[in-house]
Write a structure and sequence with these properties.
The structure is a single chain. This protein has ten helices and 13 strands. The protein is of the alpha/beta class and 276 residues long. The strands form three sheets. Strands 1, 4, 5, 6, 8, 9, 10, 11 and 12 form a nine-stranded mixed beta sheet that branches. A two-stranded antiparallel sheet has the order 2-3. A two-stranded parallel sheet has the order 7-13. Pfam families: PBP_like_2. Residues 161-273 form the PBP domain. InterPro entries: PBP_domain, Phosphate_ABC_transporter.
Length: 276
């Protein structure tokens, strides 16, 4: 009887009653994903094992292998929570505030929203076409594309293509891929002699492809590991990207603390009534 009374109160005040008891359904990215790596670092979803801190994402979390699948899964499950690139956010899901601050480019720029990561490039080839394309990605022409896509551009250089011919293979992060596709098409309008093949996978696969000389450029949506930087790859930051923590649009939760997000994904918080 008392629980029914509480449910009635929650409904009266516009809150969804499933928050009283239903389990949270956390969705994570796969191991090797740069988005997962950045999320785990930013929210400290880690545990100490010996001298190392390792990923402590709950084994009960469902694992998805792309940004698109993450969004679809959260959109179709009222109790789901996940995380995506801010630039990939659409209106099929809801991005929650973190410690009361909304995820936005403006709030990243004014340093009130601290949940962001670099979009890195690792370069294994040194030739005229690769250098011309990289010059374009840090140009004022690329800046407008990066900003329109919802990311933070770091450069505003003048650029004029030398129009070299050849082929580039770009491989890696599914979070960076949509932006790279836009940059590819814009660059090809300036240099139709270029062929650019983009292979979507994850950050770790991308950088391994660059190390093995299978790809000319790797897309890495997290910080580089020391072991990766020992392989002689050149690096460049393409842009900055916020991470958005997302829930189903029917979920009345509007804001979460960083600590609550961490505890949800480590499995320490399992029901919505316990979140802050």
């Amino acid at each position: 009887m008392f629980k029914k009374y509480l449910v009635a109160l929650f409904v009266l005040f516009g809150l969804n009653s499933y928050l009283l008891a239903e389990n949270i359904y956390p969705i994570s990215r796969e191991m090797g994903s740069g988005t997962r790596g950045a999320f785990v670092d930013i929210f400290d979803v880690k545990e100490q094992v010996g001298k190392k801190k390792i990923d402590a994402t709950s084994k009960k979390a469902e694992v998805t292998n792309s940004t698109g699948v993450m969004i679809t899964t959260v959109a179709n499950s009222k109790n789901a929570i996940g995380y995506i690139s801010l630039g990939s956010l659409n209106d099929s899901v809801k991005a929650v505030k973190i410690d009361g601050v909304a995820p936005s480019v403006e709030n990243i720029n004014n340093k009130t929203y601290t949940v962001f990561r670099p979009f890195n490039l690792a370069i294994s080839s040194d030739n005229e076409l690769v250098n011309d394309f990289l010059g374009y990605t840090s140009s004022n022409q690329a800046k407008s594309i990066i900003q329109k896509a919802g990311y933070i551009a770091l450069y505003d250089n003048e650029f004029s293509s030398k129009k070299p011919s050849g082929k580039i293979i770009v491989a890696g992060s599914s979070s960076i891929t949509p932006l790279m596709e836009k940059l590819k098409e814009s660059y090809k309008s300036l240099n139709p002699k270029a062929t650019i093949e983009i292979q979507q996978s994850d950050s770790t696969t991308g950088i391994n492809s660059a190390i093995e000389k299978i790809a000319d450029i790797a897309m890495v949506s997290r910080e580089f590991k020391d072991s990766e930087l020992k392989n002689g790859l050149k690096t460049q930051v393409l842009a900055l990207d916020g991470l958005a923590v997302i829930v189903n649009k029917a979920n009345p939760i509007d804001s979460l603390s960083k600590d609550s997000v961490k505890k949800i994904f480590t499995g320490d918080i399992t029901t919505w009534e316990k979140v802050k």
